[in-house]
Design brief:
The protein contains 11 helices and 10 strands. By secondary structure, it is of the alpha+beta class. It folds into 2 domains: 194 residues, no CATH class; 129 residues, Arc Repressor Mutant, subunit A (Orthogonal Bundle). A 7-stranded mixed sheet has the order 1-2-3-4-5-6-7. It has a 3-stranded antiparallel sheet with strand order 8-10-9. Helix 6 packs across helix 9 and helix 6 crosses helix 10. It is globular. 33% of the residues are buried.
């Protein structure tokens, strides 16, 4: 008999990984709004910035989740980088990796879009449950000699489910070297979801490996449906029938690349797509061509409710049919996805 507790844990883990990835995507949109509104800044997602020879951590290019540059011809324009973490490990010893990542940005970085020698602020955006505890951890490491010299701020960002759902952002600790941003983020900035939903729908991927089921969701909702391009196919779907759709990895890549930030349309890796297609294949929802490893036939059909729940239900059914209960259960899922939870 299937271990129901194990399956419940699997559901929670999958949903948590999806939520964490969506958290980063949503905050890419939100911080672009904030910086463009209050600092007249443009936003880069995953821009490669080059460290100096004095960098304490790396000699390779660094790619903050976000980098910002004020659009002005005057000297003294504002710059900042922002790393977004929806989740931190329970083992605090692993938090030092986050500090090292921030230290890699604490440098005279080059390859900004606009010329200038201004120092940049460093931001870290966290879920509110982590902000104070991480700030305390940073101070503990400072006593031990691990210091971030540039202006460093911890932001908190959370989705608030009220009568009108919103995303709320506030500076929790530190100081920004931009008077307007400092004032507004000290007070906190709120975005009603219905005002930014179109922008949120445009950014579904960034330069971090998503959970495979997340890629499956985006393919099902935003790619496959685009190829229901005849009345006959639509009628079959309406009757609950399966409609086969022949697609290549390249065609899916082209469509998914439209769901990225404008500054980084090539951030998606084709391996993510192949992993998702292979998972759909294991669920009986796709077939691989025998003559071309990049060509698949999708067995597309309508489903009721949320695509996340639809796919999790299919995964449960597959796992229930396996002779070894945990072969594709929690242990397997954790092993495959733990390496994908951190960007670097």
């Amino acid at each position: 008999m299937k271990n129901s507790n194990n399956q419940t844990n699997l559901d929670i883990r999958i949903s948590s990984d999806i939520d964490n990835y969506e958290y980063a995507c949503n905050n890419i949109v939100v911080f672009e709004r904030i910086l463009s509104t209050y600092a007249n800044a443009i936003t880069h997602q995953g821009r490669k910035l080059t460290p100096s020879t004095n960098n304490k951590i790396t000699k390779n290019d660094v790619t903050p989740d976000l980098s910002f540059e004020e659009q002005t011809k005057n000297s003294g324009k504002y710059r900042a980088v922002n790393e977004i973490k929806a989740w931190l490990p329970n083992d605090k010893s692993q938090w030092f990796e986050v500090i090292e990542q921030l230290q890699s940005y604490d440098d005279d970085l080059t390859n900004w879009q606009f010329l200038g020698n201004e120092q940049h602020d460093i931001m870290l955006t966290l879920d509110p449950q982590f902000t104070t505890e991480f700030f305390d951890y940073v101070n503990e490491q400072k006593i031990k000699g691990t210091v971030i010299d540039r202006s460093f701020s911890i932001m908190e960002s959370s989705r608030q489910e009220r009568a009108f759902p919103r995303i709320f952002v506030r500076k929790n600790h530190g100081k920004l070297n931009h008077n307007t941003l400092e004032r507004e983020l000290n007070k906190g900035i709120s975005f009603l979801m219905y005002n930014i939903v179109r922008d949120l729908d445009k950014v579904k991927f960034y330069d971090a490996h998503p959970p495979t089921i997340y890629t499956m969701m985006q393919m099902w909702d935003h790619v496959f449906s685009k190829f229901i391009n005849s009345r006959e196919k639509q009628q079959k779907l309406d009757l609950g029938q399966i409609v086969p759709i022949e697609l290549t990895v390249d065609k899916i890549y082209e469509k998914l690349s439209q769901l990225t930030h404008d500054s980084n349309p090539n951030c998606i890796e084709k391996k993510w797509i192949r992993d998702a297609l292979n998972e759909l294949k294991s669920l009986g929802m796709a077939e691989e061509s025998v003559t071309d490893i990049n060509k698949f036939t999708i067995k597309y059909r309508k489903h009721s409710g949320d695509t996340r729940e639809f796919l999790i239900k299919l995964m449960k059914k597959r796992d229930d049919d396996k002779p070894k209960p945990d072969k594709n259960g929690l242990d397997s899922y954790i092993q495959k996805n733990d390496s994908q939870n951190s960007k670097k």
